[in-house]
Amino acid sequence: HLRERDLNTGRGSRRLIEWEVVAVESFDGFVRQHGAALTKVAYLLSGDPGHAEDLVQVTYLKVYKSWEKVSQADYPLAYARTILTREYLTWRRRRSNSEVPTEVPTEVPFGTQDAAEDPSDAITEREAVWMLLATLTKRQRAVLVLRFYEDLGEAATAQALGCSTGTVKSQTSHALSRLRVLAPELARRSARLPPS
Question: Which of 40, 95, 107, 118 has the fewest CB atoms within 10 Å, i.e. is most exposed?
Answer without folding.
Answer: 107
